[in-house]
Amino acid sequence: MIAPVLTLHAHPTAWTGWEERVRLMVRPRRFEHVVRVAELAAQIAAANGLDVARAYAAGILHDVARDLPDAELLRLAPPECEIDGLHPLALHGRAGRSLLERWGYADPVVLEAVEDHTTGPRGGNGVAQAVYIADVSEPGRGVNADIRELALQDLTAALERAIISKVSYLQGKGITVHPRTLRSYHALPCCAHLAASCPPAEPVTSSAFR
Ligand SMILES: [Fe+2]
Ligand SMILES: [Fe+2]
C-alpha cells in the first residue's frame, strides 16, 4: 500500500492562473486526471529528491493540448514522422509545449516534461520522468499500481519497467514504436547497449499513445 496522494499547496500562487487555463482547455474528466497526475508527480518527486514544484507544474500542464482537434494538433506540432501524420493524438505532448510557449511559459524543464510525456522522457530530466510515471499510473487509471509504488521507492527502476513493458507490448503486437519512444528506451541505463537493434516498422494504432 502507498500513502494517499498528497494535495500539494506548496506550488507558487501563480499556478492558479495556469491551472485555470488548463481547466478551460480540457474536458472535466480530463482535468480530474490532470490534478491526480500533478499530485502524484509531486509525491514521486519528493520521494526521489526532485523539484516538487516543477513536477506539480508539469503535471498540471502535461495534457493542455490533449483535447484539441487533430487539425490544431497538426498545426501546433507538424509531424516529424509517418506515425505523427497518421495518428495526430501522438502529437499532443509536443503540441502542448508549443501552445505553452505561445502563451509565454518559459521553464525549459517543465516544457520538456510536457513535450515528452506521450512518448517518454529523454535522459536526465527527473521531472519529466516523474510526470511520465504519474501519467501512466495515477490511481484513476486503475492500472500500473506496481509502477506507482515502485516510483515512490526508485524512479529509475519504475521508468525502466514502464518503458520496457510499453516497447515490448508494441513489438509483440507488431506495432511500430514511435522514434521518440525508442529514444527513451535507449536512454535507459539498462537498454543503452541495444541502441542498434530497433524494431521493424509496422502500422501503429492510436491506442499506442496516451
Ligand atoms: Fe497525455
Ligand atoms: Fe495525461
From TrEMBL:
GO terms assigned for molecular function: bis(5'-nucleosyl)-tetraphosphatase (symmetrical) activity; metal ion binding; nucleotide binding
Residues annotated as transmembrane: none
Classification via PANTHER family: BIS(5'-NUCLEOSYL)-TETRAPHOSPHATASE, SYMMETRICAL, SLR1885 PROTEIN
Gene3D superfamilies assigned: Hypothetical protein af1432 (1.10.3210.10)
Record field: catalytic activity: P(1),P(4)-bis(5'-adenosyl) tetraphosphate + H2O = 2 ADP + 2 H(+)
InterPro entries, alphabetized: Diverse_Catalytic_Enzymes (IPR051094), HD/PDEase_dom (IPR003607), HD_domain (IPR006674), YqeK (IPR005249)
Identification of the protein by name: bis(5'-nucleosyl)-tetraphosphatase (symmetrical)
Keyword terms of this UniProt record: Hydrolase, Iron, Metal-binding, Nucleotide-binding
Top enzyme category: hydrolase
Hydrolase recorded as keyword: yes
One Pfam family, short name: HD
PROSITE patterns: HD
Domain HD residues, every copy: 30-140
E.C. numbers: 3.6.1.41
Source organism of this protein record: Deinococcus humi
